[in-house]
Design a protein that fits this description.
18% helix, two-stranded antiparallel ribbon, elongated, disordered C terminus, transmembrane
Length: 276
């Protein structure tokens, strides 16, 4: 009994991966492996797996105009917000995925961080694009769902499946990374090695004289945060309701996946349904 109690206590004290929670206090879920092509009014479905279904307009015909996304606006409260320190191996996987999304060829980064033991990330030049939820509700109310579509039947009418609508996305074209050693002291990153690894598409700029923090900038912004509403049905009416941000609903796309690949890897648990 004591062994079981200790195992339970250890499990309950397991620390959440900080790379999937650092935006939660600001009201956003984290895209662990950022990428282009995640937009407002996209649908996400979940059954045994979770994947992007596509734009809602592909399966929902409405007499009400689709909500018009807002122009991107600056988000100073999120801009520069750092993750907690991440183990180097995990951190380099996250960084490699982000750099590929920004346009780098699959980079090998270990040599450039040979003195580091942990890293932190922050996005700069952050913008928010959003839609009005009430307008999305009008669109659904005055619309007709293509119920003969097998994808629709599964995600909208299977009691074990769920459908979600993206209503806000955070984007950035720049990511900064800071490196520290085992004692938490700043360590320099090998800038020439990094530039050679990421290629000419990505601009690499040190932000301090010790080269312990570098900023990577790509040609186009990628999505790294999001908000969703779950679509449910009550009798003959469609409903939208919010989902609290959580590390349990952060998701990642494998670093070799193309921008439109509908195969995200989801971090979740049975008590918390996923949305993108």
């Amino acid at each position: 009994m004591r062994a079981a109690h200790l195992a339970l206590k250890a499990g309950s004290m397991k620390k959440t991966d900080p790379s999937i929670t650092y935006l939660n206090s600001y009201g956003y879920n984290v895209v662990k492996m950022p990428r282009a092509g995640i937009e407002v009014m996209d649908l996400v479905g979940r059954d045994e797996t979770t994947q992007i279904i596509g734009p809602i307009s592909a399966i929902w015909t409405s007499t009400e105009p689709a909500p018009v996304p807002s122009p991107p606006r600056a988000m100073p409260n999120v801009n520069g917000q750092k993750t907690d320190s991440l183990d180097l191996s995990l951190g380099l996987d996250v960084l490699a995925g982000a750099l590929q999304a920004l346009g780098a060829s699959a980079p090998s980064l270990k040599l450039a961080f040979h003195s580091a033991r942990s890293v932190q990330f922050a996005y700069t030049g952050v913008t928010l694009t959003t839609i009005q939820t009430v307008e999305a509700g009008n669109y659904l109310t005055e619309g007709t769902l293509k119920t003969d579509n097998p994808v629709v039947r599964n995600y909208f009418f299977n009691p074990d499946s769920h459908a979600y609508l993206i209503t806000s996305v955070l984007k950035s074209a720049s990511i900064s990374v800071s490196a520290t050693d085992a004692n938490g002291t700043d360590v320099g990153i090998d800038v020439p090695a990094i530039q050679g690894a990421v290629g000419a598409t990505i601009k690499v700029a040190p932000t301090n004289s010790s080269n312990s923090t570098l900023t990577f900038t790509g040609p186009d912004a990628v999505t790294f945060g999001f908000v969703v509403q779950e679509i449910t049905r009550d009798g003959d009416q469609w409903n939208l309701h919010g989902v609290n941000p959580s590390g349990k609903i952060a998701f990642a796309v494998g670093p070799n996946a193309p921008a439109d690949a509908p195969k995200p890897i989801i971090f979740s648990s049975p008590e918390c349904r996923i949305d993108i």
